Amino acid sequence: MAKITKQELRKDPIHKALENILAFILRPRIPKKTLQIGGAIVIVIALVLTYKVVNKPRRSPDAELRLLQVVVSLAQNDTSSVPQLLNELITRYRATESGKRAYFYYGIYELRRNNKEIAEEYFKKFLKSGIKDDLLKALAYGNLGNIYLDRGEYDKAISFFQKAEKTSPEKSLMAFYYFKRAKAYQIKGDFQESYTLLTEFSEKYKNSSLRGKVEEEIKFLKGYLKGVNLTS
User: Fold this and answer.
1) What is the domain count for the chain?
2) Range of the domain at 58
3) pLDDT exceeds 90 at position 197
4) Among candidates 68, 35, 5, 37, which has minimal Cα distance to 143?
5) Is residue 214 part of a domain?
6) Which class for 20: exposed (0-12), middle (13-18), buried (19 or more C-beta within 10 A)?
7) 156 near 146, Cβ under 8 Å?
8) Which of 12, 29, 87, 107 is least surrounded by CB atoms within 10 angstroms?
9) CA geometry: angle at 112 spanning 82 and 169, to 5°?
């Protein structure tokens, strides 16, 4: 593929579409929906991140363009070309930032195909890549937490949710992963620890839109623990 200049990239319709998406995303308030960390929010955050990367000096425009194509394809649920693009990134461009980020997107791609063990390996490779990217690292930790939670490996899930919370540069994501950790304790059967974490939530994350949900969980756990104490 011929090298593409920054000026040509700015004229690219994909780049223009990203600018329009970002104008909507980067508003003062974060919609409540963005706390539902699934495929959609991962892609939205990835779009923001990739946009920032594209506008920085880089040694490999080809690698950055391939990464853009991967992100847009995942966002549009058109993954026919994604494996080829990702394989090129992690082989031909493995030393670039885009090549390292490709491991994360490969994890997302495999998760969508329900290949959780393969996704796990790619997320771990991304975390070992040495790239300085706290946002994607937090999402990788969070996805690993979800994988372990589904397997019933609760202690590992709790550990990864805590890493995700501590790593995230975004307050809303920190609150979300704190909540996920509390819920993981509940699923594990440690209702007291879940209750303790949730009662501290309001103090740590006063402005979180999850507060209503947290209050519902506290009410449920308070009643449950009271019942347990009465029958013990």
Assistant:
1) 1
2) 6-132
3) yes
4) 37
5) no
6) exposed
7) no
8) 29
9) 90
